[in-house]
Structures are given as structure tokens and as C-alpha cells.
């Protein structure tokens, strides 16, 4: 379950949404336990289901904001949960720029490339990635290579500086 949540979080960029997606996919998979051999194919089916759910979610583009209500019941305000006391302002600026560049680069990747790259960062083998994405191991390697190349080009100016 932690690997599945980490995988989904890498695709949707929100841990809470990822947990919900994984839970839904897991429940749907268990509901059809009689139709599949979960012992043998469970992990592959779960990751494929998560990938499809993330694709569906990205097409819908639903966003949720966290607001904190005022004491008097007036309009709320955005609540920032980041503890910024641990960093110097210049570190925050540098980190923020690089983080935005990486996020923008990841968003430019296709969902399949992003999924392959995320699975690889979780330590999955090419065969496992291929099974989860329903491609050949060679194609999984190509997806990872192209995703890394595209991301590298996108963040090159930030890394060189």
C-alpha cells in the first residue's frame, strides 16, 4: 500500500488525493477478486488501475483548496502549512524556483512517461513497470529514458546556475 500511494502521489502531486485514489482502486479490485487471480496479478492490476484513475482525474482537472474560516464566520483565507523558519530566504527562493521548474517539467511529460519515471524512482524493475503500464520491458526503458531527457532539458538552466 505505501508503494501504491507513493506512486499515485507522484502522478497527482497531492498525497491526500493519492490516498483516496489508491483506496478506491484497492476496493474496486477487491470487489472483483473472483474475476482475477489476485495472488499472481494483484500488484500489476492495482498499479494499472491507479494509473488509469490518475489519467481520469487529470482530464477532469478538479482542484480543491484548503481554507480556514474566520472566527466571526466571515470569508475564509488560505492556510499555509509550510514551516519556513528552517530556511534562509535565498534558500527558499532557489528551492522554490527549482521545485516549480521540476513540477512544470513533470507536467509536460505524458502520464505514461510520468508513471514509468515514478515507478523507476520507487525501485521497480523494468519488468514490473512494463506489467503495470501494459507495455514491453523495452518500451518501459524507452519511456523512462525519454522522460529523463525531457525533464533534464527543462531544468537545465536551473541546475547549471
Automatic annotation (TrEMBL):
<keyword id="KW-0731">Sigma factor</keyword>
<dbReference type="InterPro" id="IPR036388">
    <property type="entry name" value="WH-like_DNA-bd_sf"/>
</dbReference>
<keyword id="KW-0805">Transcription regulation</keyword>
<keyword id="KW-0238">DNA-binding</keyword>
<dbReference type="GO" id="GO:0003677">
    <property type="term" value="F:DNA binding"/>
</dbReference>
<dbReference type="InterPro" id="IPR013249">
    <property type="entry name" value="RNA_pol_sigma70_r4_t2"/>
</dbReference>
<dbReference type="GO" id="GO:0006352">
    <property type="term" value="P:DNA-templated transcription initiation"/>
</dbReference>
<keyword id="KW-0804">Transcription</keyword>
<comment type="similarity">
    <text>Belongs to the sigma-70 factor family. ECF subfamily.</text>
</comment>
<feature type="domain" description="RNA polymerase sigma factor 70 region 4 type 2">
    <location>
        <begin position="101"/>
        <end position="151"/>
    </location>
</feature>
<dbReference type="InterPro" id="IPR014284">
    <property type="entry name" value="RNA_pol_sigma-70_dom"/>
</dbReference>
<dbReference type="InterPro" id="IPR039425">
    <property type="entry name" value="RNA_pol_sigma-70-like"/>
</dbReference>
<dbReference type="InterPro" id="IPR007627">
    <property type="entry name" value="RNA_pol_sigma70_r2"/>
</dbReference>
<feature type="domain" description="RNA polymerase sigma-70 region 2">
    <location>
        <begin position="2"/>
        <end position="62"/>
    </location>
</feature>
<protein>
    <submittedName>
        <fullName>Sigma-70 family RNA polymerase sigma factor</fullName>
    </submittedName>
</protein>
<dbReference type="GO" id="GO:0016987">
    <property type="term" value="F:sigma factor activity"/>
</dbReference>
<dbReference type="InterPro" id="IPR013325">
    <property type="entry name" value="RNA_pol_sigma_r2"/>
</dbReference>
<dbReference type="InterPro" id="IPR013324">
    <property type="entry name" value="RNA_pol_sigma_r3/r4-like"/>
</dbReference>
<dbReference type="Pfam" id="PF04542">
    <property type="entry name" value="Sigma70_r2"/>
</dbReference>
<dbReference type="Pfam" id="PF08281">
    <property type="entry name" value="Sigma70_r4_2"/>
</dbReference>
Amino acid at each position: 500500500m505505501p508503494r501504491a500511494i507513493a506512486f499515485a502521489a507522484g502522478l497527482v502531486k497531492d498525497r491526500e488525493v493519492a490516498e483516496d485514489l489508491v483506496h478506491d482502486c484497492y476496493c474496486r479490485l477487491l470487489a472483483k477478486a473472483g474475476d482475477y487471480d489476485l495472488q499472481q496479478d494483484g500488484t500489476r492490476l492495482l498499479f494499472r488501475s491507479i494509473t488509469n484513475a490518475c489519467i481520469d482525474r487529470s482530464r477532469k482537472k478538479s482542484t480543491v483548496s484548503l481554507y480556514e474560516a474566520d472566527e466571526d464566520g466571515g470569508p475564509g483565507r488560505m492556510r499555509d502549512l509550510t514551516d519556513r523558519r528552517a530556511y534562509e530566504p535565498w534558500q527558499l527562493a532557489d528551492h522554490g524556483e527549482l521545485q516549480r521548474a521540476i513540477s512544470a517539467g513533470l507536467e509536460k511529460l505524458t502520464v505514461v512517461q510520468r508513471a514509468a519515471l515514478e515507478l523507476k524512482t520507487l525501485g521497480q524493475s523494468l519488468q514490473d513497470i512494463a506489467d503495470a503500464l501494459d507495455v514491453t520491458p523495452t518500451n518501459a526503458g524507452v519511456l523512462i529514458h525519454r522522460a529523463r531527457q525531457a525533464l533534464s532539458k527543462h531544468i537545465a538552466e536551473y541546475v547549471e546556475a
